[in-house]
Design brief:
Layout: E1 2-3, E2 7-10, H1 17-23, H2 39-56, E3 60-65, E4 70-79, E5 93-99, H3 108-123, E6 129-134, H4 138-146, E7 150-151, E8 169-174
Antiparallel strand pairs: 1-2, 2-3, 3-4, 4-5, 6-8, 7-8
């Protein structure tokens, strides 16, 4: 578990799946992530997230508000797996975040992402962590810039799993201490 001033980041459990399906697999949340997915697809990926924690001690945490004990989103570290990504990115460590719509614009994603980056660098010893978005996702782009991630246009790529409006995929990276 990771703690911040306002959040608890807990590993996912099977008890979180219904909440993820209801609050995270929505048109608004998934707008820049390829759209709403079938429940079976979400469940399969969620089971992988649980397995990642068992295997590596890291993955996509569930974000909880400390005071209210309420789930608000997800943030985590995982391996880049897109076949469309440049070879240099495949298998690299990536950070990503999603929040349920009622919690947008309150600084929770930034707070969680800073904690997860610190965990990746300090506890896991990662030498670099990447992040991906698209120019159409202005909120995530601004957050990557606020976090101090460096834009890497040389690694941008077109991902056929995303609509034209969300291409190209834009790549950022962070190093320890940056």
């Amino acid at each position: 578990m990771i703690e911040t001033a306002r959040l608890l980041l807990r590993p996912p459990s099977a008890n979180d799946l219904d909440w993820v399906l209801e609050n995270m697999n929505t048109a608004a949340v998934m707008r820049h992530l390829g759209g709403v997915r079938l429940a079976d697809t979400v469940a399969e990926r969620f089971a992988s997230d649980i397995a990642d924690f068992a295997e590596t001690g890291s993955g996509r945490w569930i974000l909880w508000l400390r005071v209210e004990e309420r789930r608000i989103g997800r943030c985590g570290l995982f391996r880049m797996s897109s076949e469309a990504a440049p070879e240099a990115l495949r298998g690299q460590h990536e950070i990503g975040w999603t929040l349920a719509e009622p919690y947008w614009g309150q600084g929770y994603a930034s707070e969680a992402a800073r904690a997860v980056l610190d965990f990746g660098f300090e506890a896991l010893g990662y030498p670099v962590i990447y992040a991906q978005t698209s120019a159409s996702n202005a909120g995530s782009t601004r957050l990557m810039e606020r976090l101090g991630l460096e834009r890497r246009p040389d690694l941008d790529y077109v991902d056929p799993d995303y609509p034209a409006a969300d291409n190209p995929t834009t790549v950022y990276c962070a190093w320890p201490g940056a």
